[in-house]
């Protein structure tokens, strides 16, 4: 089933204490929402193994920056460790995006995800979930094809310039941290 996900992550049980802020941004390089979750305390760290190495994705002092562009069918979550170093960029491929009456950005997750690591390694995740959603009639063939097209575009354009991606996300992290 297509899941609606909210930038403030209200059901994030791993995180015991957090601070959240969000802002609408429109300039020459971006039009959309940027949100920050500053994780104060977790029940336990979240660790994932990628390419044979363990990566801690959330722990005390970590920051998650979520960028929701109004154009395109993706959302970028940048995970920073407690030293404000990028751990990874996580691209959710999306069906719909919007904002709640309370001003919280949300998106409908279309299963397929792209992970980009600071060392330029790229992973395509959850292809099996996307295929299963198509087989079960949860998504259309058009949505299935769009998800792959969007993921391919992320991998072939955005993922190619790690410095540009890093500068982009660091800019909005800095901007949102000023208003906290």
From TrEMBL:
<dbReference type="InterPro" id="IPR035930">
    <property type="entry name" value="FomD-like_sf"/>
</dbReference>
<dbReference type="Pfam" id="PF04167">
    <property type="entry name" value="DUF402"/>
</dbReference>
<protein>
    <recommendedName>
        <fullName>DUF402 domain-containing protein</fullName>
    </recommendedName>
</protein>
<dbReference type="InterPro" id="IPR007295">
    <property type="entry name" value="DUF402"/>
</dbReference>
<feature type="domain" description="DUF402">
    <location>
        <begin position="66"/>
        <end position="159"/>
    </location>
</feature>
């Amino acid at each position: 089933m297509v899941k609606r996900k909210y930038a403030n992550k209200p059901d994030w049980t791993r995180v015991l204490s957090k601070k959240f802020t969000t802002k609408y941004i429109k300039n020459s390089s971006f039009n959309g929402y940027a949100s920050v979750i500053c994780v104060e305390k977790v029940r336990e760290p979240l660790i994932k193994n990628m390419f044979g190495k363990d990566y801690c994705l959330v722990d005390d002092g970590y920051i998650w920056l979520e960028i929701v562009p109004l154009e395109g069918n993706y959302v970028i979550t940048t995970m920073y460790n407690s030293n404000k170093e990028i751990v990874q960029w996580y691209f959710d491929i999306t069906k719909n995006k919007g904002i709640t009456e309370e001003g919280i950005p949300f998106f409908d997750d279309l299963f397929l995800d792209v992970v980009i690591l600071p060392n330029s390694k790229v992973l395509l995740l959850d292809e099996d979930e996307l295929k299963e959603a198509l087989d079960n009639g949860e998504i259309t063939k058009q949505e299935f094809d769009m998800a792959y097209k969007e993921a391919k575009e992320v991998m072939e354009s955005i993922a190619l310039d790690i410095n540009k991606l890093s500068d982009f996300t660091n800019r909005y992290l800095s901007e949102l941290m000023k208003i906290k």
